[in-house]
Amino acid sequence: MNPLVITTALTGAETTKKDQPNLPITPDEQVATAKACFEAGSRVLHLHIREDDGSPSQRLERFEEVISKVRKQVPEMLIQISTGGAVGVPFEERMAPLKLKPEMATLNAGTLNFGNEVFVNSPDDIIKLAEKFKEENVAPEIEVYESGMIDYVAKLVKKGYITHEPLHVQFVLGVPGGMSGKAKNIIYMAEHLKEEIPTATWGIAGIGRWQLPGAMIAMAMGGHIRTGFEDNIFYHKNVLADSNEQLVFRIVRIAKEFGRPLATPEQTKEILGL
Predict the structure, then answer these.
(1) Alpha-carbon gap, residue 220 to 70, rounded angstroms
(2) C-alpha dihedral over 215, 186, 5, 32, to 10 degrees?
């Protein structure tokens, strides 16, 4: 089977220390976690940053500090920053960290209800962000929360706003307000993506209780997997995970049993077109 790329979403913008006491917040905590997860088998770091008080941030200096330290201590790990930030962050602030030249960054493909809030990504802003990716020569990772977003991304590809090849699309499933991580949804999304953008690769970011079931389906279908405290803080129902790397180790162990090899750093670059 094709090699498996594991992405670690280690912090996110919503999870708190109260929810998960082992959440890495400071730059040093995030770097130590990135190193542990790489050694466990993860090859991509999905990065949100926080201030020392735990509040979500898009502050350029903070991103720069974490990225610099990760590149020094874990040079083979690919850095994928979030341009989603936290719900309500002004769009210009969300785009700003692209100038730091990470290997990848997220491009959210539409607006949706996000729990009790609205995560706004207007068509004009999506196009502006897509153009910024090309300007900064950063590879986009497209985040879609329901199937209509795949159609919209295909339209942007056709019109030349998104040009990276191969395009990597992340199915973020299980957000209250978006599609759930049911097996039939994942199968449909993967088939729909293949019809609309045949060369695209895809992965699953299952939220909460959908993380492990979604990962197992992606494992079997040849998709890739995102894990980590941004998406899920539990190891078993009502049992908190000890660390992000514990969640990575679980995926690695299952992949070994399944016979799916882990992507090397070089294979990861090839798969993602980097």
Answers:
(1) 31
(2) -50
Pairing status of strand 139-144 against strand 117-119: unpaired
Condensed to tens digits (0 to 9), the pLDDT of residues 1-10 reads 899 999 999 9
Domain boundaries, the chain: 6-272
Taking the whole predicted model, whether its pTM rises above 0.90 is answered as yes
**pLDDT confidence of residue 158:** 97
Dist CA 230 CA 47 (whole Å): 10
Cβ-Cβ contacts under 8 Å for 245 (sequence gap 6 or more): 33, 36, 37, 39, 40
H-type helices in 43-90, by residue range? 60-73
CA distance 241 to 139: 31
Angle between helix 244-258 and 211-221 (nearest 10): 30
Return the CATH superfamily for domain 6-272.
Aldolase class I (3.20.20.70)
Strands 49-50 vs 56-57: parallel, antiparallel or unpaired: antiparallel
Predicted pLDDT at 7:
98
